[in-house]
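Quick review question:
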């Protein structure tokens, strides 16, 4: 019956969430050790190439990426523990620009320049858009395009990330935001599940809006 089907679906979703939490915890703790070794080794190497500006530049970039990785792990572990959000009034243009910078991605953000502020955790909201922009970049490929749009709808701010890729296969659209479901050949399906969790903790929603070509994800957040 439809009721039984819904019940089984909810049970499967709960099991996925449990597995998801355990996986995040395990991955986070396992990655911290090698990252610590990398940080220590980086410090030693930097001390031995003080006069080589080119080497220092590359080592600084490595250090920056290690810092980002550590921050992501911390955020993931904090999320499965449901720590309180460190909220403040945020300019969404700044959040999106920070996400694009983290990916070294050049994308036009003019369409969201005048959006109202939101109340949120800057680090976690940045991670939402890092995931969405990264997915769009992989989907569009080097010859495609990515578009970011924004609007205010009845006191709610809608932010859309759209790409010109192949789109999301219809067979997984209903399960797109479940843990361990992925559209990538290489991936374990954590990104969109985390995005949904963060957005909902900010009293918002995220939806995939099917297109004839490409994919479009819309995040809706209450204005501050």
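Suggested answer, residue by residue:
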């Amino acid at each position: 019956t439809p009721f039984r089907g819904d019940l089984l679906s909810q049970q499967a979703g709960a099991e996925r969430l449990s597995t998801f939490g355990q996986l995040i915890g395990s991955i986070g703790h396992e990655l911290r050790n090698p990252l610590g070794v990398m940080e220590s080794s980086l410090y030693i190497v930097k001390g031995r190439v003080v006069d080589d500006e080119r080497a220092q530049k590359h080592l600084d970039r490595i250090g920056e990426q290690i810092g980002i990785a550590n921050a992501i792990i911390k955020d993931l572990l904090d999320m499965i523990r449901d720590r309180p959000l460190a909220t403040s009034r945020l300019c969404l243009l700044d959040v999106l620009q920070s996400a694009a910078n983290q990916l070294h991605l050049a994308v036009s953000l003019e369409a969201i320049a005048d959006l109202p502020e939101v109340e949120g955790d800057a680090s976690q909201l940045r991670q939402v858009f890092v995931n969405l922009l990264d997915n769009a970049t992989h989907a569009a490929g080097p010859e495609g395009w990515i578009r970011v749009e924004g609007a205010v709808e009845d006191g709610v701010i809608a932010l859309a990330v759209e790409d010109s890729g192949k789109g999301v296969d219809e067979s997984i659209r209903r399960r797109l935001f479940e843990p361990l479901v992925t559209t990538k050949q290489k991936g374990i399906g954590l990104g969109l599940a985390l995005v949904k969790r963060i957005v909902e903790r900010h009293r918002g929603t995220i939806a995939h809006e099917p297109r004839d070509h490409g994919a479009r994800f819309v995040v809706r957040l209450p204005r501050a």
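Why it works: The domain at 2-80 is CATH 1.10.287 (Helix Hairpins). The longest strand covers residues 146-153.
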